């Protein structure tokens, strides 16, 4: 859907929200209410309620321990169940915005990272829509004992830089004002560990992947070489288990392939990936002096 919007005459704007202390401030009663609202089985709800109750916190400082006290709010962090529970906790926020702006806004959320996408003919209209949508989010904030952090919000305009896509006529340098905080549009935005650039070329994500890859390769080189260190078999396992997943993270989202007007971006992405692979294969086992060429 995003590709269809940015390929049209409409201006697309994306705003990311951030909830401060999402897990720590979750109210147990509201969470149980949301679970019942979505018809979770009663046995599961009772088990979850028992999981949340009778939690004790003891803070250890340099001067000594504070002593144990009961923690009657929050979802325990570190449990694989915690992200699932918080998805139920903020489900009302997503539903309320979708009901208020059907077919005019797209909202997604993963734990405390909320993403709102709006589209219209001008960037100014998008910003006004986002400010109204945030009023709905503020009502959810009050009902769920949560706290938004506008200083951590992100705003970006998305449009394809190709000939067949008309450029925005009006100015796109329009800000969103939330609680006295001015949120200005940026050329690159990080959302769920993915670097989004305003033209959707994926190059910023590739540059980020290259930096991470060089750090991992340097770590590999410190524990092995062509004639010393751990065996090549184990290096290969580390390469496929550690390095490759990092540089190909959600590549189906940011890697542009056979896109009209994006051949240069596709070639640049391929060269960057081949460069990372060559450096890994050459510097770790020392087996290659030239990159492999595909027939």
Automatic annotation (TrEMBL):
Residues 1-22 form the signal peptide. Residues 1-183 form the Reverse transcriptase domain. It comes from the Eukaryota. It comes from Aspergillus cristatus (Chinese Fuzhuan brick tea-fermentation fungus). The lineage of its organism: Eukaryota, Fungi, Dikarya, Ascomycota, Pezizomycotina. The keyword Endoplasmic reticulum does not apply. InterPro entries: DNA/RNA_pol_sf, RT_dom. This is Reverse transcriptase domain-containing protein. Keywords: Signal.
